Amino acid sequence: MPAQKPVKSTSSGIGYKIGLGFIYVVLGIVAVFQIFPLIWLFLFSLKDNQEVFELSPFAIPTDPKWENYVKVWTEGNISQYFLNSVVYTASSVILTVLLASMVTFAITRMKWKLNGLVLGLFMVGLMIPIHSTLIPLFSTFSSIGLIDHPLSIILTYTAFNLPITIMILFGFYQVLPREVEEAAIMDGASIHRIFFQVTLPMTAPVMATAAIINMIYNWNEFVFVNTFISSENFKTLTVGIQNFIGQYSTDWGAIGATLMISILPILLAFLFLSNRIVEGISAGSVKG
């Protein structure tokens, strides 16, 4: 007699679909709660002070005040703050990723006695609270003339982001195949050429991940800029919001517009580059 084909169980398939549908529903609810603050902030930025206090948080303003955006960009010096944020963020990210790549390359690819100690010293930086360094940093920058200077912000961002960037790169370098580098050595390539032309291009995914994480931190940072910078020409968006808070009155609509302008670059960068973050993190977690 011909062998009978096994009958597929439909219960497991139905259970899988139900479980998958439940996960999608939960994720959809979480996504709605995540989007709510952005919707509230956008509506908030289109209201005047009277509507802010009289209307419900998610009420659409009867006469949207688009001029709030024009006001903060032209009268509130936000264009200068925006440019400063871009300069500080871009400079710090490039410097941090490049230095962290050099340190990680030296620790993982070169044999020297103190590589473990150096790695440990950098990792100690993860345990140092930011606020505990404000007074020593202010004193140091004051003695060398860097108070109210953009370089104080760039150096501080770079120093505080180095440990986490090295930690992200370290896992990737540990599983990175060394055959290509060994072949470059056999061809007579120098250590600098191996690093810049061989290793650095191979680490592009994890460098993109580190750059995005650093960019988000630098863009949103407030404490260091508020402490080290007093000149209007060097302030960033996060500090510039205070311009609309007066002693007797506060322009809430202008504050909302400034917050929306400050959020958009990071939001767009995350939407377009979020896959890079996942790729970079997963690339260093699995050997292969």
Describe the structure.
It is a single chain. The protein is mainly α and 288 residues long. Helices cover 72% and strands 0% of the residues. The two termini are 48 Å apart. The protein has two domains: 11-54; 75-283, MetI-like fold. It has helices spanning 10-45, 49-54, 67-74, 78-109, 115-124, 134-143, 150-175, 179-186, 191-202, 204-220, 223-228, 237-240, 252-283. The protein has 13 helices and no strands.
Identify the notable features of this structure and list them briefly.
mainly alpha, 288 residues, 72% helix, 2 domains, globular
How far apart lie the N and C ends? 48 Å
Quick one: CATH class of the largest domain? Mainly Alpha
How confident overall, as mean pLDDT? 84
Q: What share of residues is helical?
A: over 70%
Query: What Rg do the Cα atoms give?
Result: 25 Å
In the CATH classification, which architecture of the largest domain applies?
Orthogonal Bundle
Instruction: Report the count of strand segments.
Output: 0
Question: Which fold name is given in CATH as the topology of the largest domain?
Answer: MetI-like fold
Instruction: Tell me the overall shape.
Output: globular
* N-to-C SSE string, H for helix and E for strand: HHHHHHHHHHHHH
Q: Give the count of structural domains.
A: 2
Percent range for β-strand residues:
under 5%
Poorly predicted ranges: none
Structural class category: mainly alpha
The CATH superfamily of the largest domain turns out to be MetI-like
